[in-house]
TrEMBL record:
Residues 18-201 form the Transcription factor MYC/MYB N-terminal domain. The keyword Transcription applies. This is Transcription factor MYC/MYB N-terminal domain-containing protein. InterPro entries: MYC/MYB_N. Keywords: Transcription, Transcription regulation. It comes from the Eukaryota.
């Protein structure tokens, strides 16, 4: 289908590339949800320190000038319900809870994080990554980023996600912001995955219109 046909059929393909990318991360792995938090200026008009490529250079100004906001997200709710039913059978404590529902997932979209501050902001500004597990017993001393050794409090919505069956949350700094992944299983830290995700989102940035 050429560009003219796409326009005639009302298919803004570029606008769906990010959603498709987030969905593919979940369908091709153990992750059940993927969210992109985008780094944006705290105030408009944005600071006047553009680099030669035309993108805002965050290294030239105060980190407080930037925030992380929800850009897009995908969650396989059917997989959440199925896994939750299997794990809660015979478990009275789990049976009293609920699986990850749209209301809880999209509640994250109201969160705003300060760039360079807190767990999310520091991982984004340091271009790093962290793996967080629901069960403290799952913390492996060989892992690069143990959650319970961090002094930074976790985001408010995470505790409810852990109660809803999420066992692993990973946050990875990418070109445009921070990628947050959630899994119903224990997923060990994987540096190859980190590099793959960073390359994937660096490529997305080169496509006009994806991050308008």
């Amino acid at each position: 289908m050429d560009r003219q046909q796409q326009q005639q059929h009302g298919l803004p393909v570029v606008n769906h590339l990010l959603q498709h990318t987030l969905r593919s991360i979940c369908t091709e792995s153990q992750w059940v949800y993927a969210v992109l938090w985008r780094i944006l200026p705290r105030n408009y008009p944005p600071p006047k320190w553009d680099n030669e490529s035309g993108f805002l250079d965050r290294s030239k100004g105060n980190k407080r000038n930037w925030i992380l906001t929800w850009e897009d997200g995908f969650c396989d709710f059917a997989a959440c319900v199925k896994s939750f039913k299997q794990s809660s059978s015979g478990d009275s404590e789990a049976a009293s809870a609920e699986p990850l529902q749209p209301e809880l997932f999209f509640k994250m979209s109201h969160e705003v994080y300060s760039y360079g501050e807190g767990l999310m902001g520091k991982v984004a500004s340091d271009s790093s990554h962290k793996w967080i597990f629901r069960d403290p017993a799952d913390q492996d001393s060989s892992l690069v980023s143990p959650w319970h050794g961090s002094l930074d409090p976790h985001p408010r919505t995470w505790e409810a996600q852990f109660k809803a069956g999420i066992q692993t949350i990973a946050i990875v700094a990418v070109q445009e912001g921070l990628l947050q992944l959630g899994s119903l299983d224990k997923v060990l830290e994987d540096l190859n995955l980190v590099i793959l995700l960073q390359r994937k989102f660096t490529y997305l940035q080169t496509i006009p219109g994806v991050f308008a």
